[in-house]
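Contributing new complexes? Match this layout with flavin-adenine dinucleotide.
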Amino acid sequence: MRSFAFTPAESVGQAVSAQGGDGDAAYIAGGTTLIDLVKLDVMRPARMVGVNRLPLNDVERLDDGRLRVGALVTNTELAHHPLVTAHFPLLSQAILAGASTQLRNMATTGGNIMQRTRCPYFRDAAAACNKREPGSGCDALDGINRMHAILGTSEHCIAAHPSDMCVALAALGATLTLVGPHGAREIAFGDFHRLPEDRPDREHEIEPGELITHVTLDSPVEGAGAHYLKLRDRASYEFALASAGAMIAVEKGVIREARLALGGVGTRPWHAQEAEQALRGQPPETVNFEKAAGIALRDASARQHNAFKIPLARQAIVRALEKATQAATDS
Ligand SMILES: Cc1cc2nc3c(=O)[nH]c(=O)nc-3n(C[C@H](O)[C@H](O)[C@H](O)COP(=O)(O)OP(=O)(O)OC[C@H]3O[C@@H](n4cnc5c(N)ncnc54)[C@H](O)[C@@H]3O)c2cc1C
Ligand code: SF4
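Output block (do not edit by hand):
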């Protein structure tokens, strides 16, 4: 493992100035992704800026009903927070479907959003990988690509985005607050993760040196039922092969509001907006959920080992929408 300098920061300003934005430094929060990748020689920061002492640990309800979450709130704290279980159950379910208790105790909200892909070729410094080494090729295209994405892929990268929490954020809608060398700004969560296209190494709309300080969830949909369904090789401590986060609100027998996002199948947290639109105004019936699944997966494209993800994701969508409907109250 390469050596690095460590600077614990006491304030956001100090963290941003210590990071410097020069490409040689990285923020470190729980360290559950970053330290792994440093040990594997995939990430090589010469300096790490510790952010755990920053005052970004609060979860608060704003006057307009939105929920403001500090970037250092751990996955465990967020999943069990009373405001989250009461008003954003999809977020709680998605977080608890991820990793293990020990990891969730360390993992932070900001770190989860910034976590890197689990593509084994990305994590193997001897393999060709355009994300790790731009222009080097992609060993996954004709390799063991069973875990890889079927939506949003390019000829340069087919890596799936691994986060469960981000699937819920995509469905719920949220805004990120970033602070960097040039001040603070906000960006919609849906615009933050990039498609790989011809630059898979550029994963986020984040400028050098910027720190995520908060995630603000949109106001909850009143009366909605929610369900996060994660399908994977074993029941815990495993990444999704396909997952679906669904929210349904029903009024007088028809769907007033629908939200749907997918995990394990997209190169970024996959917000199925066209499928949501097709569901609004329809009766909450399986036939309509199947149509929505068809729309969500219309552009899916598989490689040699991951074609099974298309029917798997279809089933996940239909089942998650059915379960969300059962949890909804018809107003
Ligand atoms: C064995 C294992 C299994 C896992 N299973 C799952 C799973 O099933 N589902 C799932 O969703 N996740 C899973 N994870 C991933 C886990 O959720 C992430 O590792 C964790 O959320 C990262 O948070 P962290 O605070 O530890 O980030 P760190 O490791 O500290 O940082 C990760 C990255 O984010 C950057 N960063 C951290 N905080 C900020 C910030 N505030 N602003 C800007 N950049 C920042 C760092 O520089 C680094 O690049 C698993 C991880 C492991 C090791
Ligand atoms: S799929 Fe993406 S991350 Fe995996 S080897 Fe190819 S370029 Fe790298």
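Reviewers usually confirm one structural detail per submission. For this one: Residues 117, 119, 121-122, 129-131, 138-140, 157-159, 200 surround iron/sulfur cluster (ligand 2) (CB under 6 Å).
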